[in-house]
Structures are given as structure tokens and as C-alpha cells.
Amino acid sequence: MVEEQDTHLLMAEPGVLEDPGKPVWYLANTLETEEPYTLGAVIAKGRSPVRLLAVVHDIDLYPTCTTEYTIKAYQNLLQILHEKDIKSVGLPLLGTVHGKFSLDQAVALLSENFLSKLPRSVERIWLVLPPETDCRDLCLFKKP
User: Fold this and answer.
1) What confidence tens digit (pLDDT) does each residue in 101-126 have?
2) DSSP calls for 39-67
3) Is 42 part of a structural domain of the chain?
4) 56 located within any domain
């Protein structure tokens, strides 16, 4: 499963964006003392299933998510899928979970930078779409 993440992995903390549930000093200390991950990185955690954290946000920047780093994350994700011989992956449209990419923009990035370059080992991709997505309007492939 792939998760959209920020450079400090704060989005990995359940509810941190709505109600952190932890003292503000804890979050501030985490931001000040821990070295941030690089934008575009993909961090693999666990073994079965592998949890893949796609770092596409930097909460110190505006906008927090850019096309450049989303493309880099897709490239790094492809490399991990190949190296770990992963057969199926649950994938959100990066930039739509916590970002503000439009559905059209996110699908174009996915198609151009991920789907067209999939390693042969990948047999299934489970798209995790935002709840408000009308799947009837989603078209990933069209015959020329």
C-alpha cells in the first residue's frame, strides 16, 4: 500500500492533521530534531504487506505538493516495485489525498510517469480514489 506523505512523516500519524492527540511540544520537537526526508523519496516499511510512504509534501512550502516531486516519487516507487518484486499495489492518486491536484492532473501524472513504465512483476494496481470521485468520469486509457 502506498501512502501520500510529508517530509517529516506527520501525515502518517493518525489524525495529526485534524486533531493531533499529542501535545504541541511533541510535534514541534519532532519537526526540530528529526532530519526530514527528501521530497520525492519513497520509504519502504514492513515486509508483508510492504507499506510505501511517498514523500510528496513539505509543510514548510506553499504549495506543499508540486508536480516535480510527485513525478520523482512515482519514479522512486517504480524502482522499489521492481527491486522488491511487488505483484500488486494499492495506490492513491498522489497529490489528491492531502494535496490539491485536480483529478485530471493527477490521472495525467499517473499515466505519463507510472503506468506507462510499470515493471513486469506488477500484476494488479488498486487505485485508491478520493471518496467524492465519480468513477464513471475516470478514464485511464483510451484507444487511439
Assistant:
1) 888 899 899 999 998 899 988 998 88
2) TT-EEEE-SSSPEEEEEEE-TTSSSS--H
3) yes
4) yes
